[in-house]
Inverse folding.
């Protein structure tokens, strides 16, 4: 290690002023877990109200506040920051860099997040209540007809957007400039590749979201009529702008998850990733396609038939690169020497459930059929298969996989496996029946429902409580590991793991790669 | 170890099957009662079956690997990591499968969009939180009415047992003739709603300032129920759609009766009413139309409080103005077009004399009519 080896500062200032990528990564991860619990608590309220037909616990207006905050907190507070945290911890270690390229900006992009969410959460206590227009906040429900707290919501979105943009610029700058000698682009671990592409998506679409909320702000306070037909504006314009951000956003959520499982599956298959190059190209084509399919969320707004056809064909195409990825992961497992530690279990869970979500996505892309699926629980099932079983499962896998490297301690494997099985079963009991009620005609975002949907909704609620409770086990396991887990000192914690992060000591010291490593001819991604 | 777990899981799934199979638990899309609906259903089944087959193949390979290529069996991992041929194959084959799916999807979509030659036009307007239907083609005064949720607050708040069509029942359904191409012109008055009846295969957004078109040709008489499917505010879950499809003769009879009813309403509006009559009618209108926003005892909610409101206690004309014209830019709609003059007079009288607002003022239908004339 370097000559002036120094550790972290002491006390609270360590965290407030830190520019260390590992500290910042840790803060992102804890923050996103806290948001995951908060968003989860909102979900529990939703599922408790939907446990039986009739209104029992909350009023319809408050129910809508819960669905809105649940969506916003999960997407912007839990999933996105968790992957930024992972990127902070891992990208420098994976490419042989001493830190992120812009460490001070890194500090700032984390520290504006908590105030942003505080502002969002504070709307719950304002007159008229929190935003109640869904995480997609369609105008004019979110403008003319919104509670006054919408202004705070708009500023919260601006803050989160700024944080994301800064985080992305940092990742792009780091990957482009700080790779160790010999670490060419086609040697980058897939996690780095997927994040690099994600970062470009973020830089491209977060400003569009900022534009959308700014137009809302103008409509609400400055007399413009961007989204009000009465003043010559167009409510559908809002949806185009939102989904021009929103569809790439769903890939922003899933691409880093693809990266994670592309690291973990080879490690526990003890075999190199199949089709590395095609994985990179598939990721890039998904990213490109994600910009040109947005209106598949708007099949029922009354687009001309030509537009409808175009968006249908383009959306269907996404299934091709997505399929390539799934086939590659399975070929990686084929004739490997598999073992099933917790990270592998979560990755296989990801693979199975994400694929199911991909299939329902393909069904949704068929415009005439989507007329029946749209805005029903079928869509709710689809996006939870891709976002929870996709993004959240892969994030969970990542924590189990790299936790020993981060802390130098091993988690409790049995408890990890129990966590997986409870999550897997709980998740499916929650969301599989939602396909049925959706097809049978239950609209989404309703606080109460007709009697024929009662059984499946009760099942769904029970599953949700099980899945929710299993996260406590996860939290316990992580804390127990940090405090008193069995010590590990092998650099390569897992026998099949490949990549530069497994060449530094365990636990990873505060500063790594102060002297850049030499990357040989062998691909670093294994 | 793992095998045992899989067995346990399969056991749990199987044991839940009888539940799934219960008749009232519909698990699939309904083909409905239109030709288009049947086509959409076939399309849905086709894509789903293709997905299931691909899924079985892919997961089959994966589980084979999970069972036979485990480290615990002492296998030596192979090191292969690419194959251009295979990779081209699994890019090209899915592409052609997609093309095969796109063909029927395109033809069905084109049919859905064929709005020409409709025999009956109905204008559907979404309001927070009810639907308004207006028959456009009928000669003479157009027939128009609002369709409100008919489920009682007691059922919703669990103090009475829930009826069979809980949340899917309205005071006045939309009536259409069977075997007739009916065109729906769909719009909204405030926020975006979406008009959906699964069995007649129409879902189209109702957008303020725009008129969307959709059509349906129902082949079977019956009652078909649906709901609003675009989040439209607090009571989005409480604005059902009910369609009665009846024979052509029955439809014509209904239309004639409806027209007669509207005419007699008009005549009744010139009669002087007593305070008691106005109050009891007003209470009914208030509970049906205003309570959701103004509260069961006038305490307010989405809308302002009526109890002690300076408008309800102040000038009658202002009260009429707010109620008839609405307050633009807020959830307070222009009820002038939604309520008859009798209903409007009654609800205003009621608001001025209920919830402790003891003004003693009486507003007559004729006052409302002359106010509307300006
Ligand atoms: C094979 C790939 C996919 C296809 C073809 C696809 C297609 C679709 C379509 C057509 C819809 C609109 C459904 C409707 O509202 O009627 C939809 C909704 C959605 N999808 Fe996907 N999807 C895919 C993958 C994903 C992924 C990877 C994610 C996120 C990780 C995702 C997240 C969502 C979300 C959040 C919605 C609902 C948005 C809302 O209305 O709130 N999808 N998808
Ligand atoms: Cu999308
Ligand atoms: Cu609605």
């Amino acid at each position: 290690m370097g000559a002036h080896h120094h550790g972290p500062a002491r006390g609270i200032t360590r965290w407030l002023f830190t520019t260390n990528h590992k500290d910042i990564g840790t803060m992102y991860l804890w923050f996103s877990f806290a948001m995951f619990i908060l968003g989860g608590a909102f979900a529990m309220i939703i599922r408790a109200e939907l446990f039986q037909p009739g209104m029992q616990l909350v009023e319809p207006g408050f129910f809508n506040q819960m669905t809105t905050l649940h969506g916003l907190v999960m997407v912007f507070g839990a999933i996105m920051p968790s992957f930024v945290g992972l990127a902070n911890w891992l990208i420098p270690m994976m490419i042989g860099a001493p830190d992120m390229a812009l460490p001070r900006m890194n500090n700032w992009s984390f520290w504006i997040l908590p105030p942003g969410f505080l502002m969002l959460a504070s709307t719950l206590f304002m007159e008229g209540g929190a935003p109640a227009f869904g995480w997609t906040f369609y105008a004019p429900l979110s403008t003319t007809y919104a509670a006054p707290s919408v202004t705070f919501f708009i500023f919260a979105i601006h803050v989160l957007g700024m944080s994301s943009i800064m985080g992305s610029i940092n990742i792009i700058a780091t990957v482009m400039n700080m790779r160790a000698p010999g670490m060419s682009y086609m040697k980058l671990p897939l996690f780095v590749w997927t994040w690099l592409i994600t970062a470009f998506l973020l830089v491209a679409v977060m400003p569009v979201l900022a534009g959308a909320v700014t137009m809302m702000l103008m409509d609400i306070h400055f007399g413009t009529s961007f989204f009000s037909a009465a003043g010559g504006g167009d409510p559908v314009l809002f949806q185009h702008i939102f989904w021009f951000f929103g569809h790439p956003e769903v890939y922003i959520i899933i691409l880093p998850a693809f990266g994670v499982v592309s690291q973990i599956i080879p490690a526990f298959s003890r075999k190199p990733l199949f089709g590395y190059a095609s994985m990179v190209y598939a990721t890039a084509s998904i990213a490109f396609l994600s910009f040109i399919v947005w209106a598949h969320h708007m099949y029922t707004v009354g687009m001309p038939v030509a537009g409808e056809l175009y968006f249908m064909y383009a959306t269907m195409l996404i299934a091709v690169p997505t399929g390539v990825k799934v086939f590659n992961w399975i070929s990686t497992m084929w004739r490997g020497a598999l073992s099933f530690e917790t990270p592998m279990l979560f990755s296989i869970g990801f693979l199975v459930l994400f694929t199911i979500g991909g299939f329902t996505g393909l069904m949704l892309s068929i415009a005439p059929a989507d007329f029946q699926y749209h805005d029903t629980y079928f869509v709710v099932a689809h996006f939870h298969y891709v976002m929870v079983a996709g993004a959240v499962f892969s994030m969970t896998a990542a924590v189990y996989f790299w936790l020993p490297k981060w802390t130098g301690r091993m988690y409790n494997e049995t408890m990890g496996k129990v966590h997986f099985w409870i999550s897997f079963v709980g998740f499916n009991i929650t969301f599989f029946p939602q396909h049925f009620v959706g097809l049978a005609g239950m609209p989404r975002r309703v606080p109460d429902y007709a009697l024929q949907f009662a059984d499946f909704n009760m099942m769904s609620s029970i599953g949700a409580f099980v899945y929710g409770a299993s996260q406590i086990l996860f939290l316990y396991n992580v804390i127990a590991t940090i405090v008193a887990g069995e010590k590990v000192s092998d650099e390569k914690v897992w026998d099949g793991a490949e990549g530069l992060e497994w060449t530094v000591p365990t636990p990873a010291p505060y500063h790594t790669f102060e002297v850049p490593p030499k990357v040989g001819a062998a691909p670093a991604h294994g | 170890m793992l095998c045992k777990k899989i067995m346990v899981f399969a056991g749990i799934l199987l044991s839940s099957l009888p539940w799934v199979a219960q008749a009232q638990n519909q698990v699939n899309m309904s083909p409905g009662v239109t030709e288009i609906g049947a086509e959409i259903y076939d399309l849905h089944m086709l894509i789903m079956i293709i997905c299931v087959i691909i899924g079985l193949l892919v997961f089959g390979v994966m589980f084979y690997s999970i069972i036979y290529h485990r480290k615990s069996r002492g296998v030596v991992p192979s090191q292969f990591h690419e194959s251009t041929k295979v990779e081209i194959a699994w890019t090209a084959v899915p592409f052609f499968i997609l093309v095969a799916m796109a063909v029927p999807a395109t033809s069905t979509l084109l049919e859905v969009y064929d709005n020409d030659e409709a025999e009956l036009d109905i204008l559907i307007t979404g309001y927070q939180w009810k639907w308004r239907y207006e028959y456009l083609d009928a000669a003479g005064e157009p027939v128009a009415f609002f369709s409100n949720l008919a489920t009682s607050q007691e059922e919703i708040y669990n103090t009475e047992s829930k009826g069979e069509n809980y949340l899917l029942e309205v005071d006045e359904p939309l009536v259409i003739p069977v075997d007739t191409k009916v065109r729906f012109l769909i719009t909204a008055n405030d926020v975006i709603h979406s008009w959906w009846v699964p069995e007649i295969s129409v879902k189209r957004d109702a957008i303020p300032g725009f008129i969307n078109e959709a059509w349906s040709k129902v082949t079977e008489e019956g009652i078909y129920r649906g709901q609003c499917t675009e989040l439209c505010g607090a009571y989005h879950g409480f604005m059902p759609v009910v369609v009665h499809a009846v024979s052509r003769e029955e439809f014509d009879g209904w239309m004639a009766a409806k027209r007669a009813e509207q005419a007699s309403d008009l005549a009744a509006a010139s009669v002087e009413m007593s305070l008691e009559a106005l109050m009891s009618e007003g209470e009914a209108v208030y509970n049906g139309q205003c309570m959701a926003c103004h509260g069961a005892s006038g305490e307010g909610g989405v809308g302002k409080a009526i109890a002690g409101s300076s408008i309800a206690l102040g000038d009658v004309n202002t009260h009429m103005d707010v109620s008839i014209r609405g307050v633009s830019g807020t959830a307070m709609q222009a009820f002038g077009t939604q309520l008859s003059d009798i209903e409007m007079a009654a609800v205003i009288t009621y608001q001025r004399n209920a919830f402790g607002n003891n003004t003693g003022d009486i507003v007559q239908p004729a006052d409302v009519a002359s106010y509307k004339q300006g």
